[in-house]
Description:
About 40% of the residues lie in helices and about 20% in strands. It has about 220 residues and is an alpha+beta fold.
Amino acid sequence: xxxxxxxxxxxxxxxxxxxxxxxxxxxxxxxxxxxxxxxxxxxxxxxxxxxxxxxxxxxxxxxxxxxxxxxxxxxxxxxxxxxxxxxxxxxxxxxxxxxxxxxxxxxxxxxxxxxxxxxxxxxxxxxxxxxxxxxxxxxxxxxxxxxxxxxxxxxxxxxxxxxxxxxxxxxxxxxxxxxxxxxxxxxxxxxxxxxxxxxxxxxxxxxxxxxxxxxxx
Length: 217
């Protein structure tokens, strides 16, 4: 089993798993761009490793052993992204592809040193939680900006999706993590909102609002 391929499968399982740790084989196939027969074959191998529960024509179940192994790959990715932003000056929209390469380095001490240099961050540059060395993740009580009501002031703390295009959009709007946002208007017709932050006003579509995670002050 190729190590890079194995880790890419595990990471996809981690991101696709629902609250019951279930993943459809089709979703996994679509996510990875790999044909269903190949995915089924790999999942049978994962089953023998104890990483998933595999039964024909049923959703995959990511086991605790599999979830922990996957979380440690996610840890390497998110630590790398944080290092690239904090220590090397990359923009948050530039780091994903580089981290995709570095996360496959098989050297725990290397990533432990990155963690130490960064003073043990809890989140990556996009506000996503960084799993600890045991694969545990702190659950944050964040909610979407789309759920906010007129007059509410909240802090921008994370993203539900962090495509490079969306991150560049936020850069153009001068909206970094940590920004305080106040809701000025709701538009019931299309779900858009007019908001204010840093002495500027913007109208955001529902598509944008759904991708921005916030917390109350």
